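Morning. Coffee machine broken again, so started the prediction first thing and wrote up yesterday's gels while waiting. Chain of 470 residues, entered below exactly as on the submission form.
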Amino acid sequence: MPLLGWLTKSTDEHPDAIRVDGRAASWVELRRLATALADELRGVDRVAIEATATLETVVGVVGALTAGTAVVPIPPDAGPMEREHILRDSGATALLAPAGAEPTVGDDRRPVVPVDLTRRSDTVHPEPDPARTALILYTSGTTGAPKGAVISRRAIAACLDGLADAWAWTPDDLLVHGLPLFHVHGLVLGVLGPLRLGSRLHHVGRPRPDRYAAANGTMYFGVPTVWSRIAADPDAARALRPARLLVSGSAALPAAVFADLATLTGHRIVERYGMTETLITVSARTDRPRRPGTVGLALPEVRTRLVDDDGAPLPADGATMGELQVTGPTLFDGYLNHPDADAASRTPDGWFRTGDVATVDPDGWHRIVGRASTDLIKSGGYRIGAGEVEDALLTHPGVREAAVVGTPHPDLGQQVTAYVVGDGVDGAELIDFVARHLSAHKRPREVRLVDALPRNALGKVQKTRLSAAG
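Came back before lunch.
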């Protein structure tokens, strides 16, 4: 089946199959718009695009994929150094930009190919080899400049087909979201998913609760920040009751938000897990009960395992924490221009080292504790998951946000330190509160009250910035 199977074969001319921030196109029109661009991209190996939440971005990405050209999305808010690094490192030889607009990325060394929404074509382009690169997505690690993860057409297809199985995703669905189009969540799942599986798409632009409420979708995608804001707007949340499925990803969803959404919307939200390098590998399913704080079961053809610090296997007993490793058809092809980093990311037998700490229940349900580098705290001989402490803090009525990290301690090695955004709370009270709910050794040794937690574009708390602040 072609990567964009539904778009390739559809004869549907319904005018709003794809709607992005108020502008719409039918399946047939989108295919003809993309084909006209593909005609211009013959022979271009890699092309960069500033991935704004616009119809031009959708046409640009689909046109490049139709031509067999690899797409390098650039975040619209990237600074000049990051943009230049992505362009130089990726080897993109051309830029896509809306017709008549001055490109905001790149320089005069690369030709600009206009995404012209007045041009259409009915050329039939052959389907590229499934092994061909579809996307080069740049992802930041803890050190160095962002690295380009090379993702094949085959891996994207395997990911989307696995999610279609898990979520009963069909052409009868209307997917609604307002996610950025330069990450796996918004671009692969949120745009290429509908084009492969046939669901209509309504991208609402900025993901405000009122826009989600007015969209009348059957499926909604959001990150925890979006869902927290919807849970805080009861009218908007209740408007989602007619939907079939609510999905959260890209960061852990607080248990309190899960509970509030269940009460207001009638839906127990689906959580899933993945990375840029692996796409989505684990998810809750529509045909199984959903458990707050867990991310579900391995998708079809994906395998997972837990290992200790020495790489030895650990039991799936629901309690033992270890590094999660994955293998399967959704894995990336490697880091562009970084063979050493690529080799370090894989085990000798071919499994990908996620760097995430997890537990796995005997029945296969996964719970992500957090990043090994920031969320597994080794204190006084104990291994403490930061997420468990954060969840306990968030049950306090005065706590709005919480992030827990390990900070140096002369006796314990690391101590549990909590950063809290709250109303009318003090550190000593919160330390005692956690000690009453969890084992005493898991309580924070220090609570730092802050006005806000640093977050990235997807709402993930940037714990390295907290750790660096001391």
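The first strand starts at residue 18 and ends at 20. Going to sketch it on the whiteboard this afternoon.
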